[in-house]
Amino acid sequence: MLEHGGRLRQAAGRYGIPLSDWLDLSTGINPHGWPVPAIPAACWQRLPEDDDGLLIAARAYYQNDAILAVAGSQAAIQTLPLLRPACRIGVLHPAYAEHAAGWQKAGHQLRIVEADNLDRQLNDLDVLIIINPNNPTGKLWRPERLLAWHTHLSRRGGWLIVDEAFMDGIPEYSLTSMPVRPGLILLRSIGKFFGLAGIRCGFVIAEQTVLALLAELLGPWTISHPGRFVAAQALADRDWRQQTAALLQQQGGRLRKLLIKSGWPPQGGCHLFQWLKTDDAAELHTLLAEQGILTRLFHNPASLRIGLPASETGWHRLSAALSQPVIKSLKKPALAST
Fold first, then answer.
1. Looking at residue 329, what is its pLDDT?
2. H-helix or E-strand spanning residue 14
């Protein structure tokens, strides 16, 4: 099992700090999630059904009819590698590691590609996987660039997989509203922007042959009835979405400014997290954890991903922690140019 953010119980045990005393900034999940209403009793008593309104809400939200609901985009990440014979897979580094792990486990040949030199590497690939914006670096690609790569790959029967887990809030960069194309597979999740990671609900947008194969492998009832009910309601809440998109843009900028002011300028990020690349990442992670602040540590390259505090108390707590002399004495990364 790969390591992920949000392992708060593990941190509480390691540092001897009660769960209730932690400021968890490790996940990149919106701390102001969609307000879940009371769930009807029937959701707990009956098996979920496909015509319950979830797909209607998802098709309207993503502006595409070719869509399959899955148990979080993770379900598709683990299953898509089973749909192709062994081939050459291009993955970014650093990036969400479950993509590489899934394809490697299925017997495919992995190739690490460089984000700034992808055009020259496409001829050596059958499948290219892009997280847009990338997790954890926050690098963002424009739709026309992605579609050009897809065209190049699809001429040889290749695939472009675009994981848009952190795309909500910047829809102008999304490919979901565009017509379905053979070999173009889009992954979406409502766990990040909507702050609903616990219901395990995501979507795949692709040509119907791919969706049918995925559905066959995943089997029935991949999402619980309560999860489907909550997801459908959240996707249909236009007012909340608009207000939240504006709030997260403001909060993302606030986090970046706080880190710069504290002497830790980010090298990347998006509206839900910032990314610090520094040789002192492990030490900074530990020093913050000793104060009950959990961040996401990466070892290669040495870096931290820092999410948004949920309250003014949390913002002040993070600022105070970064002002501690022992943290200020660490080496600082250089300010990124972008």
1. 87
2. helix 8-15
